[in-house]
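Sequence only, no structure available. Ideas?
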Amino acid sequence: MLDRLRKRTLTNPKKGPFHHRAPSAMIERTIRGMLSNNHRNQSKRKGAALHRLKTYEGIPKSLERTKRMVCPSALRVLRLAPQRDFCTLGRLSHELGWQHQEDVKRAEADRKVRSAKYFESKKTVDSLYAE
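Reply:
I predicted one. Tokens follow.
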């Protein structure tokens, strides 16, 4: 991966290739690459789907209380053999030069505190309704 980062255009580096460091940008680029050029440029439906795709680092405040889904067939425990090595996208991005890993960790810790507080208040309200 580091070899790919050194590749640039000889004439003008502003014209690409662009190497994203942020995990959200990496995911967007990966999903975009899964669509063929024909689908991406000529099919309005797939182009619109790509425009609707939203990726974030961490969980934004606007989406904190929405229900999160888990895709069981994609769980690491089920997909990887126990002796296999793995890496997370956040660590990979950090090693490639992304400088906001600590900020996202701090925001995630704050979110978990707010979530625990919200859950406790929800439990008390639910217990009052049960009585």
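The CA atoms of residues 21 and 96 lie 6 Å apart.
Hope that gets you unstuck.
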